[in-house]
Amino acid sequence: MKKLLYIFILSVLSLSIWSCGKMKSIEKGEETQAEIEAAMMDGRSAAREFINKTWNDSIELQNHLLEARTQRIPYDTVDKPHCRAAFDSAFVSTIRTVRPDIAKALEKK
């Protein structure tokens, strides 16, 4: 009977240690769906701000593009490749959808 109690206690302890280690790896290394969706929303927002600005020449266009690029910095400073990809994808698709003429001008450069 004592052996069964010891086995039970050891199994509970090992499961709790394993689950704590698993939670840390999720927190540090993996991106959640909510983080990816937030990055997509940030990308769309940056694209809307970029689209609504006016410019007279290509240098102004590049400056506005750099301003929009600064909104991606939080995803560059941490190791979240899926968030970076979601931001970029949402940014480009928003520009292509709303202002295809700007998208074509950017693709040429």
* Terminal-residue CA separation: 76 Å
Shape: elongated
Radius of gyration: 23 Å
Series of H and E elements: HHHHHH
**Helix count, DSSP H or I runs of 4 or more residues:** 6
Number of DSSP strand runs: 0
The proportion of residues forming helix, as a percent range, comes to over 70%
What is the typical, i.e. mean, pLDDT? 79
Beta-strand percent range? under 5%
Judged by helices, strands and strand pairing, the structural class is mainly alpha
Biggest beta sheet attributes: none
Low-confidence stretches: 21-26
Structure description:
The protein is an all-alpha fold and 109 residues long. The protein is 85% helix and 0% strand. It contains six helices and no strands. Helix 5 packs across helix 6. It is elongated. The termini are far apart.
Task: Give the structure's gist in a few sentences.
The chain is mostly helical. It contains six helices and no strands.
